[in-house]
Amino acid sequence: MKKDNETNAMYYLMCERTWIYYTLIAIGGFFGAYTYLLRGNVFCNAQTGNVVLMGMALGAGKWREGVYYLIPIFAYLMGAFCSELLPNPIKHRLPMRWDTLLIAIEMFVVVVLGFLPESAPVQISQVAINFIASMQYNTFRQAQGVAVATTFATNHIRQIGIGLAKEVKHLKLKEKEFRKKMLVHLNMLLFFAAGAVVGTVFCNLLVGKAIWITLIPFAVLFAALLHADLTTEKDLVERKPSGH
After folding, report:
1. What is the pLDDT along the chain (244 residues), one digit of tens a residue?
2. What is the DSSP-derived secondary structure letter of residue 208?
3. What's the rounded Cα separation, in Å, for the pair 210 and 200?
4. Which of 136, 125, 151 is closest to 207 using CA atoms?
5. Torsion sign, CA atoms 13, 9, 81, 230
6. What is the 3-state secondary structure (H, E, C) of 5-27?
7. Exposed (0-12), middle (13-18) or buried (19+): which is 155, by Cβ within 10 Å?
8. DSSP class of residue 213?
9. Torsion-angle region of residue 61: left (phi > 0), alpha (psi -120 to 50) or beta?
10. Best CA proximity match to 233, nearest among 135, 138, 95, 88
11. What HEC string does 119-153 produce?
């Protein structure tokens, strides 16, 4: 019994596997290119920029413009709110985890956004991506025990810097466990950049419909997560992913 418990404790859920996170952050990089190039020259994966722009607008007396930024900020807030409340009800009512359903929701949003004409208000895409990015950021928190973000790169750059500092401080140590963590963050950064590169290429080729390209990796993620929910992890439905 003890051995079984130890094995179970070492097992990472499918929604915690590193390849899931690498795929998600690549999609995040794609979204960044998409919203910047085609939907108002903004990055919707995080809200720091919107808060700064709101402050700048209010400071310049542009009240209407400043108040507008409350909309994407509120959408991001609601994404976190919903993703915090929904996991338990979902796993008790559906044969899947919240993580799996979230990927399906993101796919639905992507399909809708791809149908928007180029003349559609950019705010529609911005708010929609703000909402799903917030839910994703709050849902996928740790890749096999390493705390990461799937929607922006700032913390990964910071963690790489910390890892390099540890390399310098512990040159004589034979065991370098910290290196594994640094490599995860390095890979996250590289996948984010790769997603932005691919996003730029397809946005130039397909314009607004380029966002449909993300349905391919999303479909792979959904299939893997749903398969785990229905088979290998069916009896682990009460187990929470790391970081929750």
Report:
1. 444 444 455 789 999 999 999 999 999 999 999 999 999 888 888 888 889 989 999 999 999 999 989 999 999 999 999 999 999 999 999 999 999 999 999 999 999 999 999 999 999 999 999 999 999 999 999 999 999 999 999 999 999 999 999 988 887 777 777 889 999 999 999 999 999 999 999 999 999 999 999 999 999 999 999 999 999 999 999 999 989 8
2. G
3. 9
4. 125
5. positive
6. HHHHHHCCCHHHCHHHHHHHHHH
7. middle
8. G
9. left
10. 95
11. CCCHHHHHHHHHHHHHHHHHHCCEECCEECCCCCC
CA distance 24 to 147: 14
Cβ neighbour number for residue 9 with a 10 Å cutoff: 8
Q: Which of 179, 175, 152 is nearest to 164 (CA)?
A: 179
Tokens 């929904």 belong to 86
For residue 32, what are its two tokens?
């960044």
